[in-house]
Amino acid sequence: MKKTAIEPFFATLQAANPAPETELEYSTPFELLAAVLLSAQATDVGVNKATRKLFPVANTPQAILDLGLEGLEGYIKTIGLYRSKAKHLMEACRMLVERHGGEVPRTRAELEALPGVGRKTANVVLNVAFGEPTMAVDTHIFRVSNRTGLAPGKTPLEVELKLEKRVPPAYRLHAHHWLILHGRYVCVARKPMCWKCAVAPYCDYKPKTPAP
Ligand code: SF4
């Protein structure tokens, strides 16, 4: 993607959705962290279904610890990989209580030190809970960044670093949400819907998918 196309690419996504939000439901940084941790290889809809029951009962690290492993599993067993996620969440809660006074830390290093929290999860928490302009590269962002030529790269980290360089500062805070939503609903994996894509004029992908 030409450098001159990047500004109108994001301006178009912004015009359609000025204040994009995560589709995960949460009301505190800890709820967000827990929801993101549970969402790996699962749908946001599925995670929301489980957390709507879990969070009213336990939405702090100590309250999750008090549930115990089996208690927690009972709330999240509809989510894929729930056993390992429950284990990670319990261990993360223990560390939050022991090292951070039950609060979610605000630095990448401290977040990534938590069990089950990788670079992508840390980026989501830093961006959504704390307003940092991070790029949490998931499968959708990885695909859209490569397909459009916006930030091509062989690994999620390569794409992330390229996005940080190429996305104009005014769009950095919301860029990852716009790209996720675009990838989830328009620039979908199998057959991108180029015929109804608002950013088609700026995208390098060829040939564009014609209308069915
Ligand atoms: S034109 Fe097609 S490939 Fe390009 S961003 Fe839009 S849907 Fe994706």
UniProtKB/TrEMBL annotation:
Do you know which InterPro entries this protein is assigned to?
DNA_glycosylase, Endonuclease-III-like_CS2, HhH-GPD_domain, HhH_base_excis_C, HhH_motif, Nth
Instruction: Enumerate the UniProt keywords alphabetically.
Output: 4Fe-4S, DNA damage, DNA repair, DNA-binding, Endonuclease, Glycosidase, Hydrolase, Iron, Iron-sulfur, Lyase, Metal-binding, Nuclease
Task: Enumerate the SMART domains for this protein.
Answer: ENDO3c
Where in this chain does the record put each HhH-GPD domain? 38-185
Specify the superkingdom. Answer: Bacteria
Q: Which cofactor does it need?
A: [4Fe-4S] cluster
Q: Where does [4Fe-4S] cluster bind?
A: 187, 194, 197, 203
Q: Does the keyword Manganese apply?
A: no
* First-tier enzyme category under EC: lyase
- E.C. number: 4.2.99.18
Entries under Pfam families matching the protein: HHH, HhH-GPD
Q: What GO annotations for molecular function exist for this entry? A: endonuclease activity
Keyword ATP-binding part of the UniProt annotation: no
Cofactor: record remark? Binds 1 [4Fe-4S] cluster.
Which reaction is catalysed here? 2'-deoxyribonucleotide-(2'-deoxyribose 5'-phosphate)-2'-deoxyribonucleotide-DNA = a 3'-end 2'-deoxyribonucleotide-(2,3-dehydro-2,3-deoxyribose 5'-phosphate)-DNA + a 5'-end 5'-phospho-2'-deoxyribonucleoside-DNA + H(+)
Q: Belongs to which family?
A: Belongs to the Nth/MutY family.
Which purpose does this protein serve, as stated in its record? DNA repair enzyme that has both DNA N-glycosylase activity and AP-lyase activity. The DNA N-glycosylase activity releases various damaged pyrimidines from DNA by cleaving the N-glycosidic bond, leaving an AP (apurinic/apyrimidinic) site. The AP-lyase activity cleaves the phosphodiester bond 3' to the AP site by a beta-elimination, leaving a 3'-terminal unsaturated sugar and a product with a terminal 5'-phosphate.
Kindly provide the name given to this protein in its UniProt entry.
Answer: Endonuclease III
Organism field: Variovorax defluvii
Output the lineage of the source organism. Answer: Bacteria, Pseudomonadati, Pseudomonadota, Betaproteobacteria, Burkholderiales
Q: Which gene encodes it?
A: nth
